Amino acid sequence: MPSSKQSIRTLVAVALIAGTTAVTAPQASAKPESPASGPTTGACAFTPLEDQTYSTWTGLPPDPKKAQTHGKAAVVLQTNHGDIPVILDKAGAPCTVASFLYLTKEKFYDGTQCHRLAAYHTAPYALSVLQCGDPLGTGWGDPGYWFKDELNTAKSLPNWPGFEDGSRKNYTRGLLAMANGGPNTNGSQFFLVYEDSRLRPDYTVFGHITEEGMAVLDKIAAAGVAPSDEGYPEDGAPAMTTIIERAKRTGAGGA
Question: What DSSP string runs through 90-155?
Fold first, then answer.
């Protein structure tokens, strides 16, 4: 099973991966062996990575025998530019929501940097997202485990114009989805969509951003990619360095 760090970046608007624009991997200190010897035995089968070189290990999420598919949960990402509240939907992505809530509870996201702003706005490309959730802030980091894709919600998204076969979907403005490095390589990295984006239905959609949060996201997106980044002006570190100072659950969530 490949991990998210095994892939850097592929064609724009075709794949959104957990890598960054860097060419070489960062140097990482030795990590202790994961105390978990295998996947959890519940519905989600959270599985430790064999290679935890770039992992920040906090254990495996609780995994009930039956996936919890009812209800929503509210989380606020408190950034240095303002709060980004998100609503998580358990119905379409119960394992993804369980993992996100677990990492939030463990303060995994606190102090992490959103490492990538994609700003492909010129036809035929369309990829407009802010990518976060890497504890290293490089695009290589992960929580030391992976879990399966939950793609029913992605497959139900509108087709991108010209792709009636559903091979490209419209990840619409305001969606919250998982980044990955290939099938079933979900970890901690996620992306927030600030403009409609054309992608394969390969990325688990697990919630949406509130109107309040979109105002903050729009501000970050408007500043663009940092001119010093090699991917400027379409893909790289946000010009407005964005830190999730704290992520916390705030309630059951609304519609």
Answer: TTT-HHHHHHHHHHHHTTTTTTEEE-EEEEE-STT--EEEEEE--TTSSS--B-SEEB----HHHH
pLDDT in tens, 65-110: 999 999 999 999 999 999 999 999 999 999 999 999 999 999 999 9
Both structure tokens of 158: 């509108």
Task: Answer left, alpha or beta for residue 202, where phi above 0 means left and psi between -120 and 50 means alpha.
Answer: alpha
What global pTM score does this model have? 0.90
Asked if pLDDT for residue 199 goes beyond 50, the answer is: yes
| Cα–Cα distance, 32 to 23 (Å, whole number) | 26
3-class secondary structure, 8: coil
Q: Which of helix, strand or coil describes residue 78? A: strand
Which DSSP letter does residue 5 get? Answer: G
**Cα-trace Rg, the chain:** 17
Rounded CA gap, 47 and 36, in Å? 9
236 backbone φψ class: left, alpha, beta (φ>0; ψ -120 to 50)? left
Instruction: Output DSSP code: residue 221.
Output: H
Q: What are phi and psi of 172, to 5 degrees?
A: -75, 155
Asked if omega into 124 is within 30° of 0 (cis), the reply is yes
- Residues 216/82, Cβ–Cβ less than 8 Å: yes
Reference 113, options 9, 211, 242; nearest CA is: 242
